[in-house]
Amino acid sequence: MIDDRRLLNTELPDPASAVERIADEFRAGFEMIEKIRRPAVTTFGSARVREGHPCYTAARAVGRRFAARGWTVITGGGPGLMEAANRGAKEGGGQSVGFNIELPHEQAANPYLDVSYTFEHFYARKVCFVKPAEGFVIFPGGFGTLDELFEALTLIQTGKVMHFPVVLFDTDHWSVRLDWLRGELLDDGFISPEDVELLSVTDDADEAVELVVSAYERRSAQASVL
Q1: Residue 55's Cα: distance from chain center in Å?
Q2: CA dist 77 → 109, 111, 116, 194 (Å)
Q3: Interval 129-140: pLDDT, tens
């Protein structure tokens, strides 16, 4: 974060060293991606939720079910719902990956990781969330979770990545935000009806997994025909 503030300072006289550090971090991140067994799913959610919360139980169940289907589970590597999904993946016998981030208040890695890397820069970390993933499952969270959600939607909408599933978990939590998308952005013409259709919402762990897995299997079947 200190490095980010320095880089974004408009008075920085020579950004060359910062650019080299970013390039090195992308290179290291891509090396970590090579260790990920495919297919893989990335999950997001709050770091502030603790064991015993219904969302923790749900994220753990989703991670376990993906692992049982032979999928790798990728998270931000920290506590809360990230920990829950990684924990479930380990319990299900799957590979568990965490891409952490250096913060002013240290976000410790959770203890359920097979592959782990800590980034300095959010933008390098974001690329490494998307690059190996066949879909996103997004649990309730704060600004960081919302940032990842809208980043994914923007990449799909603009054709920068293939159209992969974006599954929102917890209907009650996401309903107000979906109403806003439809009642404000869609009604005002800022997005199209098909943009809203990029999102699925569920309260069921099995359905969350199936939405991602079935989309991957359809893409794979189509690719084998071509």
Answers
A1: 16
A2: 5, 9, 7, 32
A3: 999 999 999 999
